[in-house]
Description:
By secondary structure, this protein is of the alpha+beta class. The chain has helices at residues 10-19, 37-40, 51-61, 71-75, 78-84, 94-101, 103-112, 126-133, 159-168, 231-251, 284-291, 296-302, 372-383, 399-404; strands spanning 2-7, 27-32, 42-43, 65-68, 89-90, 120-123, 140-144, 153-156, 174-178, 183-192, 195-198, 202-204, 207-209, 213-216, 221-224, 258-267, 270-277, 313-319, 342-345, 348-351, 354-357, 361-368. A hairpin with a 3-residue loop joins β13 and β14 (213-216). Bound molecules: adenosine monophosphate and glycine. Glycine binds next to loops.
Amino acid sequence: MKVLILGSGGREHAIAWKLSQSSDRPTIHTAPGNPGTLIDGRNLPLPDLSPATFLAAAEIVQADLTVVGPEAPLVAGVVDLFQSHRRAIIGPTAAAARIEGSKVFCKSFLDRHNIPTARAGKYASRQEAALHLSFLGFPIVLKTDGLAAGKGVIIAANLNEATAALDSLPEAPLLLEEFLTGEEVSFIVYVQNGKAIPLEATQDHKTIFDGDTGPNTGGMGAYCDGRILTAQQTSVIMDTIIEPTVSGMSTDGAPYSGFLYAGLMMTSDGPKVLEYNARLGDPETQALLHRMDSDLLATLLDGATPVWKPAPSVCVVLAAHGYPGAIRTGDVITGLDHASCQVFHAGTVLRDGAVATSGGRVLGVTHSGPGLQQAIDNAYREVAKINFAGMQKRMDIGAKGLKRW
Ligand code: AMP
Ligand code: GLY
């Protein structure tokens, strides 16, 4: 069997790594891939990342199954195009991917189906939002419509900050949203034929600096531990959030399939949706698949219930100089050969036989241990072996779990 993975980040390397261990021994191609996906399969360089180019790639490698990593091709309709050419692909159609592609669409959908989420006002323009600002409470969350790679959300503590934030946002529809407090959890399900199969909960670390401070990033690390949610909390999430979402999308004429990622706040009033993503998370996937004991391909193809290793896993992201702002690339990475754990590649490139940085998030050093503390210690022991000029990392990945148990 031939599997094609679309994308080039750490999430895609984790998918390639996990699928390469499948009992079916599939041939793995990643398009365009990175130096890490080259360890676990083959890469297919692409001239561009359009749906038509991805379809051509699937035809070249005669893919029996294609798995989409990032959101952009989903929103651009890659699944629709593959389906119209009768090529098997995992992911939502463009209509269903709007749940991530448009925050205004997502909020209207959640409200229409009574799915718990932060209360929000929807505004057609920044001017319209500005008129309402002084009537709303603080802190307040400003969210621009459209894909923003994690940068479309600003939390403003007061009217001055909110006014300045409004000025900095691009001209687009936006939401002014109630600020929720609680534990943030990434809850991902795999939806197939209208049935949602929950994966284990993970926790991301979104800001650049320790202690959840500094600007937001795509995610500086994640951990997966069976204790993040109780069985009772998982069943509340499935009953009040996931099932109504999957059935609501069908009722609305845009049935959902593929991975669905709910960013949740566990508030004192119960779990509420902060956002939906139409894909697996990054770096959540690196920690998640490291902990998955069962065959990922069996879940993808037959909806087999996944089985998890008891040992918690931790993924520490090593980021480039300047991230999440203007990044520097081309810094040579040392120590990769000395790391004795799974290191997922993201923003890396092979240059004159050496591995160098080529993106914001460069590597995801992933390890496990019999307990969360040991998993953290094991991951950071390996992190210490790797270096490149300007390397940034958080030293507290997983610490929020330690605080709770
Ligand atoms: P999003 O891109 O929607 O995931 O938002 C990025 C981050 O902003 C989230 O991971 C949260 O940490 C924070 N956030 C978003 N919406 C809210 C909210 N309503 N209340 C509190 N924090 C929020
Ligand atoms: N780590 C957050 C995301 O994948 O959206």
